[in-house]
Amino acid sequence: MRKIKFLLPAFIAMLTAVSFTACNHSDDNEPTSNYERYQRAVDATVSSQKKHDKALLLVAFGSTWQQAFDAFDETVKAYQGKFPDYDVYLSFSSAICINRAAAGEHVASRNFYSPNYWLEAFGRVKYSAIVVQSLQVIPGEEYARVINHIKDFANNNNADLDDKYLSTVKLYLGTPLMQEADTDVKNLAAALDKNFNAYTSKGIVAFMGHGNPDTYDTYKANIRYSQLEEALQKISPNYYVGTVDMPDNYKNNVYARMKAAGIATGTVYLHPLMAIAGDHAHNDMAGDSKAPANLDENDEEVSWKAFFSAAGYTCNNSTSLLKGLLELEDIRALWMQHTTNAINGEPLDYYHSKNPE
């Protein structure tokens, strides 16, 4: 009896250990971090949607607005039609947009993921060719991040992909809308005029781009906005291009250039020079903000609509044209041409070249 009493606790302890082991084995299948959870979600999407041997990843900054989501969805459909031999996916590069979209900031929650997760998933299923198309407007800060994502992938940043595969996979990169000054800026100017020349006969058309602050002006990309205004004004002097973040090219600087040209009254039509009409378009450009205290300064709390209205121009909801560039078919076609150019060109040589010495 004493022996049974001794063995009983031991038997219970053994059962408890087995039970905990079983539980722990089950927990091993659960993601231990958001990183792992996101990667599993993207892996599942790629595994279920892979129909071809080539992948095409569209990379946008991102948004939390339904109008922007619709524009992205239409762009994916357009790419699927234009490139039927590719599986087409969409990625956001902005962590803020990814997190806020998942939280359902303006509309129902929707999950987007950054490029590194998609590239990792592509490598795991071993697509033979991967095309990344930047949906940025200028080759600035966000475009540089896209390049670094591709370099990290090509050099096996997580050290978990087949190195032999990475040495043979073909990588291509489609450039931003205004990559080249000589060709891209002129092509965009022509496409914009095709869409907005009817407005220049009735007033000023002021495009609001994003721009990079001085500290983030990678490749000195801000100059593309000035070059675009110059190209547009060769078509019509009633075109202007300003930005949210480019120093010396804010709304008050656009106003100063208009005054210098003798344009002190009339109608000002506003349009975002961005891939989508999201927060900047609806708030910074067309928002119902306070009036400016000083027309010679850039108050970030004052919308472009309120600014030009206070300056004496007719600028209101009816003159705020809330469409992103991806919603204009012939401008979206310019990005798609960049994709075609990339595919027809030489593959990227990023394998083992992240830090060339």
Average pLDDT taken over every residue: 91
CATH C-level category of the largest domain: Alpha Beta
- DSSP strand content: 5-15%
Largest sheet: 4 strands, parallel
Helix content: 40-55%
* Helix/strand structural class: alpha/beta
Low-confidence stretches: 1-26
Number of strands: 7
Q: Give the distance, in angstroms, between the N- and C-terminal Cα atoms.
A: 77 Å
Describe this entry's structure for a reader:
47% of the residues lie in helices and 11% in strands. It is α/β, with parallel strands linked by helices and 357 residues long. The protein has 2 domains: 49-177 and 333-344, Rossmann fold (3-Layer(aba) Sandwich), CATH 3.40.50; 183-274 and 286-319, Rossmann fold (3-Layer(aba) Sandwich). Helix 2 crosses helix 5 and helix 5 runs parallel beside helix 6 (141-154). The longest helix is centred in the first third of the chain and has 26 residues, at 2-27. The protein is elongated. The termini are far apart. Mean pLDDT is 91; it is low at 1-26.
Topology:
Elements: H1 2-27, H2 34-49, E1 54-60, H3 66-82, E2 87-92, H4 95-103, H5 115-125, E3 129-134, H6 141-154, H7 163-168, E4 170-174, H8 184-200, E5 204-209, H9 223-235, E6 239-243, H10 251-260, E7 268-272, H11 279-285, H12 304-310, H13 329-344
Parallel strand pairs: 1-2, 1-3, 3-4, 5-6, 5-7
Helix pairs in contact: 2-5, 5-6, 8-9
